[in-house]
Amino acid sequence: xxxxxxxxxxxxxxxxxxxxxxxxxxxxxxxxxxxxxxxxxxxxxxxxxxxxxxxxxxxxxxxxxxxxxxxxxxxxxxxxxxxxxxxxxxxxxxxxxxxxxxxxxxxxxxxxxxxxxxxxxxxxxxxxxxxxxxxxxxxxxxx
Length: 143
Fold this sequence. Notes:
Blueprint: H1 6-20, H2 31-43, H3 48-54, H4 59-71, E1 75-80, E2 83-91, H5 93-114, H6 119-140
Antiparallel strand pairs: 1-2
């Protein structure tokens, strides 16, 4: 089996991400806003400090973005039951609906692209799902 060309893999993932993030036509938001909404949708309520660890933003920028998303009715703050001085951020119903609709739209558009692959290419892609999931898990593991 040939060695994995990690440089080429990186380039392909970057190129794929470029088109993938643009697939949905449902309510366009900037990348940072979408990232925050996606993170809260996947991980549930988080403190701002926990959200800082997942986002590529400095605290002032994230604080401003969270305030805008809150003003837009996409997320809400609630007192943290473990620490009354802190707040938990979570998606509102509108925020959850937006995340779901973007996901559904992305599934539809990606399915149309996948349908254009050969059966062998689809089989290779299907076999890659677990490996990509594992890479995601490894990236989130602090070890």
